[in-house]
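Thread: Modeling a multi-component assembly for a lab meeting

Hi all, long-time lurker, first post. My supervisor asked me to bring a structural picture of a complex we are working on to next week's group meeting, and I have zero experience with this. I have the sequence lines for every component (664 residues in total). Could someone generate the structure of the whole assembly? Inputs are pasted exactly as I received them:
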Amino acid sequence: MSNTAIPAGRIIRFALLSLGALMILAPYIFMISTAGKTQSDIFTAALSLVPQHFYFAENFAKAFAKVPMATLLWNGVVVCGLIFLFQVVVAIPCAYAMAKLKFPAARLMMVLVMLGLLVPIHATALPLYVAFDRMSLLNSYTALVAPFTISVFAIFMFLQFFRAMPDDLLHAARLDGMSELGIVARVIVPNAWPAVTAFAIFSVVAHWNDLYWPLIVVSKQAYATPPLGLMYFRAAEAGDDYGALMAATLIITLPLVAAFLLAQKRFVEGITMTGLKG
Amino acid sequence: MSALSLRDVKKSFGGNAILNGISLDAEQDEFIALVGPSGCGKSTLLRILAGLDHADSGEIVVGGKDMAPVAAADRNIAMVFQSYALYPHLTAGQNIAVPLAMKRLSRSQRLPLIGPLLPGQKDIRAGISRDVHEMAAVLKIDQLLDRKPGQMSGGQRQRVALARAMVRQPSIFLMDEPLSNLDANLRVHARGEIVELHRRAGVPTLYVTHDQAEALSMADRVAVMIGGNLLQLAAPEAIYNDPAHIEVARFVGQPRINILPAVADTGFVDFHGIRLALLEKVANGPVSLGIRPEFVKLAPDGRSGLAGRVERLEFLGSEVIVHCRLDASGDAVIARLAPHEARDLIAGMPVGVLLPSEQAMVFGPEGRRLRIENTAAPARQAPAYV
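Re: Modeling a multi-component assembly
Sure thing. I ran the full set together rather than chain by chain. Output:
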């Protein structure tokens, strides 16, 4: 009895997990399927996963033809890269100072960080838009990147991570002749990779997929990020071409999926080490 | 002029006094052990000396120079931490090279990528590498240089930490309980090595420990710190045989010294038939009598000495610790006997407790040592028992 009982429990658990995974994956699978269908195929009453005619090549060709896909992807890489770079450059020294140095404004800064966590971008969007407009910076990388360079979430996350670093390590570094900046560069950063990787996931995923802010500050295709590029599909075509749209969506989600699969182990490591869950 | 002096160093955290004015001088090649129970301020003192913490008041003078305006990085003080504090992302060799690189290479030469291309740094790097290998050979860790701290045992890490501290020839060497994370065997072995390294370096060494055996066996002089006060700074023999304060007597010595309540009366101290003449004027009242356990003898027949009872015996191989209680006063007395002396003793039996008056020390009500006749020098002659 007990021999069969354990596998039975396992089978149920596995079935439940598979079902959950399937539900989460369903839209993505449907997207892949739709990317391979003809327009008429998509609008048939029958819901079938397997396309009647394999139309992948045509849909992908259309996706590349309708929007400057290379520009979109390049913009996505530049914007996400710059945002992530600035966030890390600002947040690491800031979090180090708050975690390990004693200064009078430390408490005030902590309060400010907490407050910052509570304010969403939507609340500050309008004043930021006006400011960028006055500076004639709309339709630029600056407008896309600048509002996100200081990430209170990053500061908060690194702060937690740095607090766990032993003080003796920093004392040893000081006695070895390092300045505070030297400590950040030579001791903190090399040992903060798990936290940086974990934060990279949150930051890159959020900004790669962000539609809200690019929609506000960008109106030219030259600066459009991938999600914004998808908007042009609808605008450009009279009848919505869902096949090509799905093909394009597939293309822009591919880099994230590939990146995750390649660095899966490190990502999971980073997230579990910092005690954060996505 | 001493190589290192501390003058009335005070420190308090949020109203709690941690250091109540510590003064200390160390000679050029002296090994001083700072010993005391945990929380007595010894590590704080070390941190202040290293420049990692600031004293509220007081002076720190190293080689005739006031250290107050000098940052930790520029003091040329090396420290070995209890946790070793090795850089986890660097190999042992790189760890040892860090202080040399920080000292010898210029800011631009230290830059990654660009640094190694700049002129003049090649010879310096070769010199650093040579010194690292030399140091590693001294500490016998040559074969570990390519390993990261995570791949080393505690003893190996401790050696790497020692090498990193010594390699740049510091002007002062500080150690904060460097052996407390090692197992007992390794610890005894490492004691000798550290003393040997101190000889080689020839610079003042301040060694913080809570282990009195370490302090007594390694140091030229022992500084006993209790409750933020430096109670006594003297050679190990003097600390043990001639403690200046009741807390020092209590802290040093295993098993602990017997402290018995006695009474001072017109220049004499009385304790159940022991009568000692005081050399200093003391107000009449309670004082404490201290006798080390090794001087206490027991008479199994109970016919001589103070009447008492054996409560417990601890057999330790080369010696036997006998816990007794005096019938008259109810005080506990510990005797440390050779096994043959304790052969006839069993727990619960009545016994005569012999306390040699020559070996007795008297401490005043506030703990200060009071001098008595005939015991000015630590007596080693055969004691006469009452």
